[in-house]
Fold:
Amino acid sequence: MSSIESHILAMLENSSIPGLYKVVFKNMLPNMSRIQQEELFMILSTESSKKAVLKTNMKKTYWQYNSILNKLEDDPTAFDKAPSSSDQKLASLKSKIALQRIKKDL
Amino acid sequence: MTTPESPKKTEAVDERTEIPSGSTVSQWFSKLKKRWEFASKESKNGKNWKERVMFFLAAFFMKVGQLSEEEKKIEEDAAKKSGELLFQLPEQEIVGAVKKELVGDKKLEDAQEVKVVDDFSTILVHEAKNLGESEDLKKKNLGIVAKASDKLSEQSTESLTLLEKRALIAFSFSTLAALKKHPDYNSAEKLAAALDKFESATSNGKGLKHLKSSSRIEGLLNFAKEDAFSFIDDELIRKVTLAPLSYEHAFKLQKGSAKILPNTSEENRAKALQVINKLIVDKNPSLVNRRVSELVFLLDTRDFEFITKLLLK
Structure:
């Protein structure tokens, strides 16, 4: 079995294409022309790489909304408050002090 | 002293931290969706975060919807392109692959069984490849039927889409019309005997027996009764044989059925309705092949083709 054939067989396992297509391609793989094999390889590898990108986005979305829900469950007021002006002043003061320390160190 | 955590609490904590599983978007997000839905219900029961929950819930569901769309596009694209490639392959080879799936590991020794499997596989592939008027439509419909067959084979837990149901019914009708035209199966008796042979020959594979045992068939029948013909503006047709027919009901249906069976005689339409009624009410599996064959020969072949076209529009 050539290398392209074994790659195709491995990718067919994880592909979403209909079962009937998979059966036909598996059976006919050795009799397909090189061009047809390459075409099939391209179709399957494109699908596989697009699915990998999708999976990354799925993970990102999952953890983002999982953590929001966890926060809400832990503290129903978690997203209630916009930062107050005194909080903002305090944060700005802290960053100024940090900046002065860095300057001193330099 | 520490008290052991209650199982409920541990379960809840697990849900919050566990890594989702599944390969599809719907599997991946199923638990998190349930948790968000539960949170939205809770918020209505007094928790003070209704607005936040609704805001995030909407954003989350929208995002999952987008991901599902993306997934669907990727799969459709792969199915379309691989379908185009499949169309380039010799039909005989495709028939061979289908035959393998249908027969499974059974060794066929009866010459009649071999012949029926050969003929049926050839007709099935030919009809599946010719569902539609344009080449594009044929390729698209083959993909839909193939995907729906996967679902019928219970490889998938997803339900059939409207498009898949219509394509499957259209495919069944066009296959029955083709069988009817075949010189070896051109009477109700011959077709019923062939269906029996086909059923026994494919008992180990994904043939008739497998199909009959699938719970989805029931759903498909209900769809045929309720929705498949909803494009016809006639309440009665949509309710074809839900229950044993009263004389009055049968009379009305007989008149109404002229719309979807314009080429079948009134007498045969009446008989056909009785057969459908028996098929649905009395589910005796040993009589199904006989009744289906009877039905096929009561209806005009042109009506099978007419319905197929309507469903594929």
Remarks:
- Chain B touches chain A through 49 residues (CB under 8 Å).
- Confidence is low (pLDDT under 50) at residues 1-7, 230-246 of chain B.
- DSSP finds 15 helices and no strands in chain B.
- The CA atoms of residues 111 and 258 of chain B lie 41 Å apart.
